[in-house]
Amino acid sequence: MKLLFMACLSPKTGNCTTAERIREHIEAAGHTCVLRDTADFKNPEDVADLIAEEKYEGALAIHLYKSGRLLLDSCIPFGIVFGGTDINEDVKGETKRPVMGQVLQKARFAVAFSNRLKEEAEAVWPFHGSKIYVQPQGIETKAGTCFNWRSFLRCTGIDNENVEDLHVFVLVCGLRKVKDPLYLVNVFSEWHVEDPSVYLIIIGPEIDPLFTKEVELNVKRARGVFLAPERPQEELHAAMRRSFALVNSSVSEGMSAAVLEAMHLGVPVLARNIPGNAAIVIHEDTGLLFSNPQEFIELSKRLIREPSLRERIVCNARAYVREQHSREKERDTYQQLLQHLH
Question: pTM (2 decimals)?
Answer without folding.
Answer: 0.84
